[in-house]
Design brief:
The chain is an alpha+beta fold and 153 residues long. It has two domains: 5-65, MutS, DNA mismatch repair protein, domain I (3-Layer(aba) Sandwich); 72-145, no CATH class. It has five helices and four strands, in the order βββαβαααα. It has helices at 26-34, 51-65, 72-81, 87-112, 118-145, and strands spanning 5-9, 15-17, 22-24, 39-43. Strands 3-2-1-4 form a four-stranded mixed β-sheet. The chain starts with a strand and ends in an 8-residue tail after the last helix.
Length: 153
């Protein structure tokens, strides 16, 4: 398991990075995430894990300050999944999709340095992504529509 960079969050909302022994900002935590430094945010008093809420706060700031990734319609759809019987399947699908995109983004960055025709490579990659997402969706919806189907016939 990864060694986490421990960040303590105090009641006054200040964040203290135990690794460098100084107060940090949300932007500093964001930079750690970008640099792939595993972080864990703990309540300074109760030791409760606050990592998810701090990461969501970072996303909120990014959505407000920059060019948003999520439209209002997408956020509405996400909200509707909470409490829905399909919630777990959707969460797994979303996590797998984001991981796939991140892996492919890394591959593209590596190949872009050597590519003669980056546009053709991006088109090929986009087409492959569509195939993979369709396969994932088909599998996801088949499990939901036919949960008791025995695949070992």
């Amino acid at each position: 398991m990864a060694n986490f960079r421990i960040i303590k969050k105090y009641p006054n909302r200040r964040l203290y990075d135990m690794g460098i022994s100084k107060y940090v900002t949300l932007n500093d935590v964001r930079q750690l995430v970008i640099e792939r430094e595993p972080v864990k945010v703990l309540d300074a008093k109760t030791k409760e894990d606050l990592t998810r809420s701090v990461l969501l706060q970072i996303i909120l700031e990014q959505e407000e300050d920059g060019e948003p990734i999520m439209s209002a319609e997408m956020l509405e759809q996400l909200i509707r999944f909470y409490g829905d019987p399909f919630q777990h399947n959707f969460a797994s699908y979303l996590e797998t999709s984001v991981k796939l995109i991140a892996e492919q983004r890394a591959k593209v960055r590596n190949k872009m340095e050597y590519a003669l025709d980056p546009l053709e490579m991006m088109t090929t990659l986009a087409n492959r992504n569509m195939e993979v997402f369709k396969e994932m969706q088909d599998g996801l919806f088949n499990r939901v529509m036919h949960p008791n189907t025995d695949k070992k016939k």
